[in-house]
Write a structure and sequence with these properties.
With about 270 residues, the chain is of the alpha/beta class. It has ten helices and ten strands. The chain folds into two domains: about 15-90 and about 185-265, P-loop containing nucleotide triphosphate hydrolases (Rossmann fold); about 100-180, no CATH class. About 35% of the residues lie in helices and about 20% in strands. It binds adenosine-5'-triphosphate. Adenosine-5'-triphosphate binds next to β2 and α1. This is Amino acid/amide ABC transporter ATP-binding protein 1, HAAT family. Keywords: ATP-binding, Cell membrane, Membrane, Nucleotide-binding, Transport.
Length: about 270
């Protein structure tokens, strides 16, 4: 994919560049020389059969997992050596396959956790005092309430997250990621466990959030209807390696991809 042109003629680097990344867990080669670029503003899908290495790649970008080879750049700068909090502060947020929502906290408190790094080093204890009169705290609270409103969660802001239905938990996770004001959003199986109607609604929500917050999105998802309708480009991993990259139409017709999904060695 061509890099975006910037004034002066030079090409802007992709927002996210994953170059030759390898990860080994003991005897398991989870990723082997994986390369992927994500351009600013795109929704790029990352697909592949179970165990392909998709979540591991997300974990590498967010530094929940160290890489054993290669490099990861965000906006042109290496991030694979940074601590996780610096990566969040740089503008990378994510959701989790198995939901990272805290059930004993309210919906608002969960979302405020996402805004923690913008808070300037306050303790979580301070952050979670919703009656605080401190001006900076009020601004943060207002920002989190705005995000809740955008995602239709305002009415349940003070309810315990654990009491919410599954589809609402998915939106709480998205709200928490958005509260961090990311430039790059990594969504790990956001449609998993949703009904057909909820998947369509979630897809629309993601598209709206992308436009409103000028996000770049990397989406891991098994729901092919959602992936094909939402993503302009797809990257396919298989057994920890790049298998194919292209438009949804190209990927749908790619013999190696069809073979991998049907269980045939590519
Ligand atoms: N912490 C770990 N320790 C050991 N092996 C791991 C660890 N995390 C992942 N793996 C292995 O790495 C490989 C890739 O797993 P990963 O979860 O990244 O795949 P995935 O594509 O996200 O799969 P799924 O679609 O099922 O979520 C698998 O073989 C998995 O068992």
């Amino acid at each position: 994919m061509k890099h975006q042109a910037i004034p002066g003629g030079a090409a802007a680097p992709p927002l996210l560049e994953i170059e030759d990344v390898s990860v080994r867990f003991g005897g398991v080669q989870a990723l082997g020389n994986v390369t992927l670029s994500v351009e600013a503003g795109e929704i790029c899908g990352l697909i592949g059969p179970n165990g392909a290495g998709k979540t591991t790649l997300f974990n590498c970008v967010t530094r929940m997992c160290g890489i054993t080879g290669g490099a990861i750049r965000f906006d042109g700068a290496r991030i694979d050596t940074l601590p996780a909090r610096d990566i969040i502060a740089a503008g990378v947020a994510r959701t989790f396959q198995n939901l990272g929502v805290y059930p004993r906290m309210t919906v608002l408190e969960n979302v405020m956790l996402g805004a923690h790094h913008i808070w300037g080093g306050a303790t979580l204890d301070t952050l979670l005092r919703p009656r605080s009169t401190d001006r900076a705290e009020r601004r943060m609270l207002d920002w989190c309430r705005d995000v809740l409103r955008e995602l239709g969660l305002e009415a349940v802001a003070h309810e315990l997250a654990g009491a919410m239905p599954y589809a609402t938990l998915k939106r709480i996770e998205l709200a928490r990621a958005l509260a961090a004001r990311p430039r790059l959003l990594l969504l790990d199986e956001p449609a998993g466990g949703l009904t057909h109607g909820e998947v369509a609604e979630f897809g629309e929500l993601v598209r709206r959030m992308r436009d409103r917050h000028q996000l770049t999105i990397l989406l891991v998802e098994h729901h092919m209807g959602l992936v094909m309708s939402l993503c302009g480009r797809l990257a396919v991993l298989h057994l920890g390696r790049n298998l194919a990259q292209g438009t949804p139409a190209e990927i749908r017709a790619h013999p190696d991809v069809i073979g991998a999904y049907l269980g045939r060695a590519a």
